[in-house]
# Entry
Amino acid sequence: MLQTLHNISNLFSLTSILIDGLDEITASRFDAVELLERIQQEPRKIRTLFASRREADIEQCLEGFEKISIVARSSDLELYVASEIERRTRKKELGIRDPDLKGQIMKRLIHGADGM
# Structure
């Protein structure tokens, strides 16, 4: 699979690859991340971006890569969660009438999102 990717990338002057959700790999995550890290072992015109929550084993595998922390602001999350609750309430997908319960749900979702 890796050789095929390299052969295809040779057809272009630059190839960009984005792989999101490394932290969601459950089976053989270390092996999977180690394989992905090998995409850039040979000097090629490939740019890679790996997106993941902070996990020690992933950071260990990708220690040679630059790390950038991207965290959503709580105000952005509040706006999104509030609009989704209202949208789903209007469409009768969510039947919450108690404003205190809406507030508790919003607080839990925003706090539990951990910047995602």
Notes: Strands lie at 15-20, 46-51. Residues 2-61 form one domain.
